[in-house]
Specification:
This protein is of the alpha+beta class. It has a single domain, classed as 2-Layer Sandwich (YaeB-like fold), CATH 3.30.2310. It has a 5-stranded mixed β-sheet with strand order 1-5-4-3-2. The longest helix is centred in the middle third of the chain and has 19 residues. The chain is globular.
Length: about 150
């Protein structure tokens, strides 16, 4: 005699569509994603001269390591003079891949480098997500208006 398998159908859980997504805890540290990195070569690290590419990558890694070890509270409290700045999305000249941020979303700029290497990481942070979505790099100070 064969054993018959009995399939039990379970009801699907109900989802409350009115429930709001909680705000990100400002004590969380960021993680990084490159899924929305621009396809435009001039805003990617690969566009750098081979003589500085390796050092720029090392400095970028150092900056990511620093940011990922800090809380959002500390990161957002850094003044522009220390390299952290929020820019209106409409002011940047980068087209992120696969995403079009809302008008009220900003792009975060994080300075990295030393000496002659003075670059910016440009990233988007969504409200309830600790991930920084890197959309490109400002390597020639032409991704947005840096002011005078």
């Amino acid at each position: 005699m064969k054993n018959k398998k009995i399939r039990v159908e379970r009801p699907l859980p109900k989802i409350n569509a009115d429930k709001k997504v909680p705000e990100l805890e400002t004590g969380d540290s960021p993680s990084f994603s490159f899924i929305h990195l621009t396809r435009s070569g001039k805003f990617r690290l690969e566009s750098l001269d081979p003589a500085v590419y390796r050092e720029a990558c090392a400095l970028f890694y150092e900056k990511m390591n620093q940011l990922s070890s800090e809380s959002w509270t500390n990161i957002l409290a850094q003044p522009k003079s220390e390299g952290t700045e929020k820019i209106d999305f409409r002011e940047i000249r980068i087209s992120p891949s696969g995403i079009r941020p809302a008008k009220d979303e900003g792009v975060w700029s994080f300075r990295f480098g030393k000496g002659k290497i003075d670059y910016r990481i440009l990233a988007i942070r969504k409200k309830a997500d600790p991930t920084l979505y890197v959309i490109g790099f400002d390597l020639a100070h032409n991704a947005y208006d840096h002011g005078s």
